[in-house]
Write a structure and sequence with these properties.
One of its GO terms (molecular function) is monooxygenase activity. This is Antibiotic biosynthesis monooxygenase. InterPro entries: ABM_dom (IPR007138), Dimeric_a/b-barrel (IPR011008). This protein is α+β, with helices and mostly antiparallel strands. The chain has a 4-stranded antiparallel beta sheet with strand order 2-3-1-4. Helix 1 runs antiparallel to helix 3. The chain starts with a strand and ends in a 9-residue tail after the last strand. Strand 2 and strand 3 form a beta hairpin. It has a single domain, classed as Alpha-Beta Plaits. The chain has 3 helices and 4 strands. The radius of gyration is 13 Å and the shape is globular.
Length: 101
C-alpha cells in the first residue's frame, strides 16, 4: 500500500539557502538507493518549521529507507542542516486522487 512519510524539523535561518540548494542532489541520491521513493516535497510551515513529505510505493520500502538513510552520503550530509527534529512517521494512503500507483 502506498505510504507517505512525514518528517517535521527545524533549520537555523543561516542554513536554509544551503539546505534548499543541496536538496535536489540529496533527493536524487535517495531515489537511486531506494527505488520505492515515488515523490518528495519539502514544505515550509507557517511557524517557520519544515515538513518533508515523501511518497513511497510501500510501507516496507519507507521503513527500510528510514532505517538505512544515513548510509547514503548525500542524505547524511543534508541532514546536518537540521537543527531539531520533531520525528518521523509513516501513514498509509487509503484513497487518493490522482492515484499515485
Amino acid at each position: 500500500m502506498t505510504t507517505i512519510e512525514l518528517a517535521r524539523f527545524r533549520v537555523e535561518d543561516a542554513a536554509v539557502d544551503r539546505m534548499v540548494a543541496e536538496r535536489p542532489a540529496m533527493v536524487e541520491a535517495m531515489r537511486r538507493r531506494f527505488p520505492g521513493c515515488l515523490a518528495a516535497y519539502l514544505t515550509r510551515e507557517d511557524d517557520g518549521g519544515w515538513l518533508d513529505v515523501v511518497l513511497w510505493r510501500s510501507r516496507a520500502e519507507a521503513e527500510e529507507a528510514a532505517r538505512s538513510i544515513d548510509t547514503v552520503p548525500e542524505c547524511a550530509a543534508w541532514f546536518r542542516h537540521i537543527s531539531a527534529s520533531s520525528g518521523l512517521r509513516h501513514v498509509e494512503v487509503v484513497d487518493a486522487w490522482p492515484d499515485p500507483a
